[in-house]
Predict the 3D structure of the following.
Amino acid sequence: MNPIVFYFANGTTFFVGLAIVLVSEVLLIRFQKRFARSALTLLVLLGMILIVLSATPISIFLYLVWGISAGIGYFLIRRNQVTRSTKQIACGFLAATTSLLCVLEVQYHLLETVLVPQGTTIYVLGDSISAGINGKQKCWPEVLNDSTNFQVVNLAQAGAKVSQAINQAKEIPESKSLVIVEIGGNDLLGGTDAIAFQSKFETLIKTLANQNHQILIFEMPLFPFQNSFGYAQRSTARRYNAAILPKRYFTKVLAMQNGTCKQRPENVAPSGEW
């Protein structure tokens, strides 16, 4: 995977964009020369572009609150008639809203610990990222099976969408297992409506929850303005108490040759703990 694409896909650009906007507006208070202010204005725009490109699935309301604070702050800072204390208050409000967004988002970038009892079978539902394409490379479920004390059953199918993953879930012959869900990329690329995706994805997770499975969901990297797909994943995970694997792990799998993982994933313990 191209390093630039990897950087955008793993969600880091959201935090970078927030930091650039905040720091640039703070510096605008200090620097009065035309060149410096023009450069800082471009940085503000760059930061906002990075935030949009990150497609971070937080609520529209929070985006609006932050956007209004950034816009009003920039407007006040650029006006010479406004007092310095007023500009500082505006930056303080922007810093507060920026901190709020960071706190709310960072939880989805931290790895959750999932305790898995010895003897538990792990089932993988997914598409070609998990099933492989040409069969010549070991995909990450096989590596997981070979490098831990757990039996891993890979039910993933190349080209699968969420609707096919529902059928995969029905093939699990037991309850109270750990089920890893890596699905949604083909829905995203295939033009599935976000509302339809959310409905089908919830059906999938509900089916697993009704069988008392532990559920671990790969969060998908998203294209700009496709935030609603990520929101569907997160809201469904919260509703059914499923764990979310940060999207950097999905991008790490994609970054491997042929989309495979030739080493044990760093979040997998040899036994008992995920």
In short: The chain has two domains: 3-108, 121-259. Residues 261-274 have pLDDT under 50 and may be disordered. The longest strand covers residues 121-126.
